[in-house]
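Worked example

This section walks through a single chain of length 295. The input is the sequence exactly as stored; nothing has been trimmed or padded.
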Amino acid sequence: MRGIATAPLLACLLASAAHAEEIVVAFGAEPTQVEPTRATAGVDAYFVSLFYEQLLNVDPDLARVNWLAESWSFERTGADHVLSVKLREGVKFHNGDTLSAHDFRFAYERQRDPMSRAAGRFRYVRDLVVHDDRRFDIVFDEPDAAFVPWNLALWAVPRRHFEAVGEVGMQTHPVGTGPWKFVSRKPREELVVERFEDYWNAAATPRAKRLVIKIIPEDTTRVAAFKTGEVDWIDAVPPAQVEDFGRMPGVRTVSLPGPNNLYLGMNATDPRHPLADVRVRRAVAHAIDTGAIVE
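Given that input, the structure is written out below as tokens.
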């Protein structure tokens, strides 16, 4: 098939792939982690979301919708602030296990661990209490307005399978509830996945049966792969070439807002560090041409 070139993101389009047995895409970067409780880089989200899901999600219109959560509510109970969750019934992991509240308890313990980048998201959470297979409460010491934009923060991780194969096993062969099922991976080369036939959400089930993700960091090589038909889609189209792609027969370019943000972190707490001096920080700020960055 002749495909779609996107700038800057492609991941949001995967579930609506055109009718084809196999889609081949090219990304400019590969993940550092494919296990969601240890994901660290922004690019990890592209790959983690193939396999893993959260309680809430964002639809194409950027509206927050229930996903693995059938329903949820937030109320104050005495001194506690309690978020009560009821899971959808019959959701399956790729290995056939049924999703339960115990899997989210397991994910909670991993995500709040200091080794997890997500630990700070649970700064106001005191506990996660399981009531039965489909119901659990997240107990807060005080409300946290950021928890909803984080899709209630938790990822669905198969507790029993994880305990059986360990962290290395989950990294080499991800198992989640998502629309794509792991087939194989060659680091720095490609990741192959196939449609999960027992996926719970028929409306979001991929049309393609197989997805091959090539890792091609170099812009020129990635663009060449698209132009020669080696791949059907690419991400991170070089901005200078977007108009050229738009004029190619049978090609559609899509530009979408990206969720990533870049920042310059400064060590202003160590009095021995030059950046502890506000004058140095101001000099750095004045040296950055923010207007050019925006343009």
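What to look for: Residues 159-172 form the longest helix (14 residues).
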